[in-house]
Amino acid sequence: MIFVRKFNWELLLFVLISFHFHFSTCYPMEPMNCTDTSRVCTSFLAFKPEENQTLAVIESMFDVLPGDITVEGNGWGYMFIRKNCSCAAGIKKYVTNTTFTVKSNEGLVYEMVMDAYDGLAFLPNTTRRAKNGAVVSLRLFCGCSSGLWNYLVSYVMRDGDSVESLASRFGVSMDSIETVNGIDNPDNVTVGSLYYIPMDSVPGDPYPLNNAAPPVPVPAPSDNNFSADQVNHKTHVPYGWIVGGLGVGLLLIILAVILCVCLRSSKCFAEAKSHEKDAEGKISHKFHILRNPSFFCGSGRYICGKPVDQKQKDGESSNHTITIPKASTLGPDVFDMDKPVVFSYEEIFSSTDGFSDSNLLGHGTYGSVYYSLLRDQEVAIKRMTATKTKEFMSEMKVLCKVHHANLVELIGYAASHEELFLVYEYAQKGSLRSHLHDPQNKGHSPLSWIMRVQIALDAARGLEYIHEHTKTHYVHRDIKTSNILLDASVRAKISDFGLAKLVGKANEGEISTTKVVGTYGYLAPEYLSDGLATTKSDVYAFGVVLFEIISGKEAIIRSEGTMTKNAERRSLASIMLAVLRNSPDSMSMSSLRDYIDPNMMDLYPHDCVFKMAMLAKQCVDDDPILRPDMRQVVISLSQILLSSVEWEATLAGNSQVFSGLVQGR
Questions:
Q1: How far is CA 152 from CA 79, 80, 251, 518, in A?
Q2: Are 372 and 351 spatial neighbours (Cβ–Cβ below 8 Å)?
Q3: In a designed cystine with 605, which of 24, 117, 609, 647 is the match (CB 3.0 to 4.6 A)?
Q4: Does 382 carry a binding-site annotation?
Q5: For 148-203, how does the pLDDT look when each residue is reduced to its tens digit (9 = 90+)?
Q6: With b meaning 16 or more CB within 10 Å and e meaning fewer, what string describes 329-365?
Q7: Which residues are catalytic?
Q8: Where does ATP bind (predicted)?
Q9: What is the DSSP secondary structure assignment for residue 371, as one 8-state letter?
Q10: Which of 550, 541, 407 shows the shortest CA–CA distance to 480?
């Protein structure tokens, strides 16, 4: 009896300790609260890489370029990752987005993400599993200052850290750290918890781009008094209790794992069975914007719970001789990466309220685009007539092969007797065009200079990817501000691949001879005259986009004071080139200043604006050979962005100017 009673007390103690551990470690920290969902700011995340992590791995983890990374000196081994931070509308928290590619064997997504990002990730879902190669969308902790400081650095407290040591290390006051984090007692900080370090300047030093590996982490200096405060519990817990507790705990863990596996397997089996019985039935569960089919339950035959090899009656047209290939019938030469989700026409029709005008987002080159809440997630649906099969298949072929943070993600498709539908991820902020041209009347705040440079860099990265980093290279052929979309964090994504063209290698570059398509004002001279579509054609169009970003003007401008049908129209490129001839350098740019968007209210670094204008000039050179490629454009814009961020940091001394800049972001 004595033994049983003692064992029960030990078991109770173990259970209590286990529950305490579970609730203190399994539930993630909460992001910083916010109220203004239009607020976007520059933030930094303090990350300590492991010794085997290369720069490329870190860029992929945080969706950044080398120019977005600075390093901490004095042997701390930290890197500071620059990210745009925004107030997420749904949760009213400051977060920034990224994607994580699973590099290990199958496991819990939560555990892999928490381990990889060392406490910087906000991922409430703790039950999903993923296999090697799967891509997980997630959010990272970030923060925006109320205006007292330029930046907030997200920092996870480690052993030996204290408010005093962090203040000394980052060159800030203890009061500022306590104010930002609401700390009443500076001695009462929690190891493993997230804190925000307020900064007036960019933390760290520029990353040495000639070094492919990140700085090797070294043990951080520890607080001499920390070890003295540790409590040794070993002398207070009997050895038998420890052995018994570990044994019971191991048994409980094994049982829990077995139970989870059984429940998940039975759920997948039940879903597969239900779809086989009723392939046309309505699908109730959510889909996810994922880039690897290994996430989906069951084999690759089921995409988001619906068999892809089923016959789609709505895809058969009685009036048109067209055949919409099913994902299962398209060979690897078409969809060698992912299979799109097949939606029914009824789902599309219902989710758009019968294509209600209230859900109409706009009109594209080959169809109208509607907002939809499809399977409980926001999407954009392009509605096309069945005669646009070529453009429909072009987008399907490209977007099922290429996946990048700066390209709009294709989710799936549907077909009816008369119409075709493409389903994309939803870009909450709309097109760049709506933010540049008369933004106030369209319900937008003017874009700040920093935001404009970031958008240009994002779009350049997307173009560089399809030009140089895909298995087969593509020319977009319709780059313009209305085809550059902005997500909730005001990060850019290139859309509308209906005119995209595969290009092959040739002696004089990558060339594809086609009929002239696209939008006037953005078309390169050689493309207009000979129909030669090259990557340099896209570079020309991107140069026009840069001129629009600087000036806020349309690509084609009507002569001022003339409203007749025969009014003279001039291209923005020709106007800006004439202006730049009178502004040979940044010190004599009075002519250029007259064409800078007045919505920026003179809140921009003149030298950076001039550099972007000169980059745009190079992009629209009549000779395609003299135009830079998109890799060179990305490098130039990265340097302009870094200089612009440094310029922004100098505004802290002028509170009135800085306040106006922050409101414009």
A1: 14, 11, 44, 43
A2: yes
A3: 647
A4: yes
A5: 888 999 999 998 899 999 998 998 999 899 999 988 888 888 888 999 999 988 88
A6: ebeeeebeebbbbbbbbebbbebbeeeeeebebeebb
A7: 478
A8: 382
A9: E
A10: 541
